[in-house]
Amino acid sequence: HYVDIYLAVEAGLPFNVELEKRAMNDEDGWAQEYENKWLDEASAWLDYELINGVEHERAGVRDYYAGGPAYLGEDISSGRGRDLWVLTIGEEVGDVLWERERLEGNRLSFAERDAMVDDAYLFYRVIRHCIDQTGMGEAVVEARKLKYGSSRVEGVMFTPANKLNMATLAKQRYQDKRLRIKMADRALRADLHSLKKENGPTGTPRFVVNDDSGD
């Protein structure tokens, strides 16, 4: 038996939906308390409906690259443990960013990573390359700038403010459907859905990722 707040109001419950929703001022809390959405979905920054809406069978396929402006995102890891090194490549087509390729690996040598980045610059028309500069990323950013030019390479520090800004801009793209990602990529879907927004001790929003490993 399923009854959310909207069905209850239709059945005669004296409840002002718009007034109460504005008073609550919490989309996730409202979804959980009044729309019968499970806690997991209600607290996910990107729910499965948003993720499903941007999946496309032509995304994630290098052969579909049409020569447009390309954007690289490089996630740096130590190369040990479960953390992956990831290079994501997107092509701008109109106002939509299409995922064209995602390269990743665990315990890759620096030479192997460099070779894959070199290949991306040769194949794609790269206009911007953003790199996680936090921690050991500092040296990688410096090397990439020397090789490919500081006008294209940009280091990004993963501060709470930057994380909030990036997460907000990303969610807007999902909502506006100005993004296309690989179809039925279970690992990617799980990663996207694992991002949660929480309020810190001072009330400032922060983002956390569920990690079943306990790390």
Q: How would you describe what is shown here?
A:
By secondary structure, this protein is an alpha/beta fold. Helices cover 40% and strands 25% of the residues. It contains 9 helices and 9 strands. It has helices at 5-10, 17-24, 27-34, 39-43, 48-54, 110-123, 137-148, 160-176, 186-193, and strands spanning 55-56, 69-75, 85-93, 96-105, 125-132, 153-156, 179-182, 195-199, 205-209. Strands 1-7-4-3-2-5-6 form a 7-stranded mixed β-sheet, sandwiched between helices. The longest helix is centred in the C-terminal third of the chain and has 17 residues, at 160-176. The two termini are 39 Å apart. The relative contact order is 0.14.
Distance between the termini: 39 Å
Side by side, the strands of the main sheet go: 1-7-4-3-2-5-6
Tally of contiguous helical segments: 9
Report the portion of residues in β strands. Answer: 25-35%
| Strands, count | 9
Helix content: 25-40%
Overall geometric form:
elongated
Largest sheet: 7 strands, mixed
Task: List low-confidence stretches.
Answer: none
Query: Pairing-aware structural class of the strands and helices?
Result: alpha/beta
Mean pLDDT: 89
Order of helices and strands: HHHHHEEEEHEHEHEHEE
Radius of gyration: 20 Å
Itemize the secondary structure elements and their pairings:
Blueprint: H1 5-10, H2 17-24, H3 27-34, H4 39-43, H5 48-54, E1 55-56, E2 69-75, E3 85-93, E4 96-105, H6 110-123, E5 125-132, H7 137-148, E6 153-156, H8 160-176, E7 179-182, H9 186-193, E8 195-199, E9 205-209
